[in-house]
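Minutes, project check-in
Item: structure for the 146-residue chain
Input as provided by the requester:
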Amino acid sequence: MEESLGLAEQIRREFTLGEMNLRTYSPLTLAFVGDCIYDLVIRTMLVERYNAPPERLHKEKSGLVKAQTQARMVLALQEELTEEEKDIYRRGRNARPHSTAKNASAADYRKATGLEALYGYLYLSGRTDRLLELVKLSCERMDKPV
């Protein structure tokens, strides 16, 4: 039986993309991917859990992906992160984005960017099990209904 590849690896193979050294990637680039993959995980959980109109799904999703919620989630995860993960998070948090969130403090936005950088790093490195473990744990610790 052939072992299943992670989505990032499947994309690399299908589109003949080369190997990459994630340590050389900008933390904002990692956050760019992490934002998307986190959004996809949350959307998938909501759609699988609720058969609801898109407006309700969007409202539920928005509460989980906003910077304030992500900032609180990363604080709830701090004790669970490895040293490598803490380093990736710090790099993302300390990066200087060219924009800020409209409805979040600068501190919350930076923490959310750090969390998204970590999620992007885990996804691109093929560690989706760890990514999902952290998302699930953060939702549980925040008493979020996903």
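Outcome recorded: Residues 89 and 115 are 6 Å apart (CA to CA).
No further action items on this chain.
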